[in-house]
Amino acid sequence: MGNIHDIARMAGVSAATVSRVLNNHPYVKEEKRRAVLEAAEQLRYVKNINAVHLSLGKTKIIGVILPFVSHPYFGVVLSGIASAAEKSGYKLMITQSTYQVNQEIEALDMLKRKQVDGCIIISRECPVDLVKDYSEYGRIVLCESLKDSSLSSIFVDQYKAFQTALFFLKENGRTRIGYTLLRPEGKSSQARKKAYEEQFGEAKPDWVFNNALTIEDGTRIAGEWAALSDRPDAMVITNDFVAAGFLLQCRKLGFSVPGDVSIIGFDNHPIAGALGITTVELPLQLLGETAFGQVTASDLSHQEMPFRLIERNSV
Known about the structure:
The protein is α/β, with parallel strands linked by helices. About 45% of the residues lie in helices and about 15% in strands. The chain is built from 13 helices and twelve strands. The strands form two sheets. It has a six-stranded parallel β-sheet, with helices on both faces. The radius of gyration is 26 Å and the shape is elongated. The protein starts with a helix and ends in a 5-residue tail after the last strand.
């Protein structure tokens, strides 16, 4: 493959003229433009994108760190980021971390090496102080509640959202309430735990079910719930897929929803509508779009996204 100087020699023009043609400069005579383009084609010239990025001072690439690409919650947020990126002429570099700190650090290192212009972290395991250390290399956006002078953030108030679900169950006569978490040590899980304890005190250990992420987890948790001698009569469940697995398995085991147990999910995924599951709607697509706007903005910002409870027939 030829370079600019090879093209200039073949076309009989200066290297500066070649550069203007390849960069679509308008003030080049048509015969010279044709000669340059024909020479570039014959020499199979390919623009060195790294050199372009170096000259522009940016890559037009944004890094995205998320634990699971395939899970609908993270997938919808990613879809929002991707939609906004496409409209703005950006590409995405996606890292699936599975909550492994080393994977998250490797992705942040791309920011340090100027391989990406900024980074959006949808959910993390990496200590926040370590994340802050990378903020000197580019904009970082966290999809969680964190007001910090070096990082932008966008979030749904998980404490308020969980509190809303608990209030709704109480209004409907349910006070023996269990709940599920993905990671007990996670920030969202801690917020939900706090909301519960302020309403009902510390939950019975066997009324809190961990590692709740998928439909299969919902099926497993329903079996654990059914095996209890003292069962909660309502469940606030991590997301609508876990809620769907829980509901379907309860029915399979002969229990009635909401007769034997009321269910509230989170996210308002279409599966909740199909199965009539009451849920707390989180604007995940919009959250992703807004996160992209933050990572490409010149100023830091902290934004709280709205939520709403959607009443169906599982309570």
